[in-house]
Amino acid sequence: MSPGDPLERLIADWLGGTISPEDFRALDARLRADPAARATLRRSANLDSALRDWATRQEIAAAWTDAAAPEPAAAPAPTRAASSLFRRWRWPLAAAAAVALSAATYHFGTLSAPQPAAPSTRVLGDGTVVELNGTAVIVPDLTATERRVRLERGEAHFTVTKDTSRPFTVAAAGVTVRAVGTAFNVRLADAAVEVLVTEGEVRLRPPPAEIAPASGGTTTSAPPAAPERVLAARQRAVVATAPSSAAPEIATLTPSEIGRVLAWQHRILDFTATPLGEIVSAFNRRNATQLVLADPGLAALRVSATLRSDNVLGFVKLLETGFGVRAERRGDSEILLSRQP
Q: How far are the Cα atoms of 38, 53, 56, 187, 250 from residue 61, in angstroms, in the given order?
C-alpha cells in the first residue's frame, strides 16, 4: 500500500460505523476493482473481530490469514464504539466484494456485560472434528481398536471420521452415543443429556434403569442395562441422567428447530479451493435453510470464500454472481442449486 493511500482509514471508518456515504462508495469501488484491497479488508475485519472478542473477555477466535495473533498485554480501555449494544453492519452483496465483506458481519456486546466464551474447534487424532460450545470440556481416548470421548461439561458437536473398525462413542453422565461415521450434537444439562443427530444415525444407550430394592432395603443384583435406541438424522433425544425407568423423550425436529439448537455454532468459515459439496454440508449442519445440489456435478466445483456460517444468502449470491450457479428457493427452508442453462 502506497503512502497516502486512504484504504486503511476507509476500512477503519466502516468497521467503526462512522463512514460517510461518499467514502462508502469509494471503498465499494476500490474493493470491486482491487483484489489486494479485499485481502486487506479480510485481515482488518478478522483483527477487529478478535480485538472486540478480547475486549469482551472472550477467547480470540479470529480466522488469521497472513499473520499469527499477537500476545495481548492488557485489555484495551472501553470506547464509545465498544459500548454500543449489539450493532450489526452488512454490506451489499456485490459479486467482487461478497467474499471479503461477508467475513465482516458481527454482533458486538458491551464491555460491562458478561459475555459467554466463544465456540472453539478441536480436531482429534482420527480427523474427527469437535466443535465446543464455550467452556465445554471433552476427554478423548483413541486407541487402535476403539475411539471414546467423555463429555465432562457443556455442549459439543461431533463430525465423526468414518472408520468401521473403530466405533466412536461419546459418554456423558452415564449416557452413551455410539456412531461410526456421522454427525451429532450432545449437550450435558443439569438433569438430562440431549442428543441431536444432524447426519446419519447413532445408537443411544441411556443410564441403567433403577430397580426396586429387595426386602431389607438392599438390591439383589446390578441394575439391568438399558436397551439401545437408534436415532436418525433430525431426531433429538432427551435422556434423564438420574437412574429412572422412564424412556428417553424422542422427537423429530424441523430444520428451523435444528437451526435454533445449533445457533451457537455460527462462526467465520474459511474455504480455500474447497469442493462445493463440502461447503454445502458445512452450511446445512448449521442452518435451517438447506442448500440442495440439483446437479451432482456441482459438488466438485472448487470455491474459495470467507463467510459467516449463518450467511447462507450471501453465499448463494456469491455462487450466482461469481460461479454461474442458478439458485431457486423452494418453500421457506430450501434453496435448489443448479447450473445456469
A: 21, 8, 13, 22, 34
CATH 3.55.50.30 in the chain, residues?
A: 267-339
Instruction: Enumerate the CATH 2.60.120.1440 domain ranges in the chain, comma separated.
Output: 120-213+223-254
Per-residue cell: 107:
454482533
DSSP assigned state of 56: T
Identity of the residue numbered 53: D
CATH classification of 267-339 is 2.30.40.10, yes or no? no
pLDDT in tens, 68-97: 334 444 444 444 433 332 233 333 333 333
Helix-then-strand count for the chain, H and E: 7, 16
**Whole-prediction pTM value?**
0.51
Question: Which residue from 17, 8, 61, 64 is spatially nearest to 36, judged by alpha carbons?
Answer: 8
Name the stretches of the chain with pLDDT < 70: 1-2, 15-17, 45-117, 209-225, 243-245
Helix (H, G, I), strand (E, B) or coil at 91: coil
What is the C-alpha separation between 237 and 234, in angstroms, rounded? 10
Fold of 120-213+223-254: Jelly Rolls (2.60.120)
Span 110-132, pLDDT tens digits: 333 344 567 788 889 999 989 99
Q: 132 vs 172, 241, 284, 320, 337, CA distance in Å?
A: 14, 21, 18, 33, 31
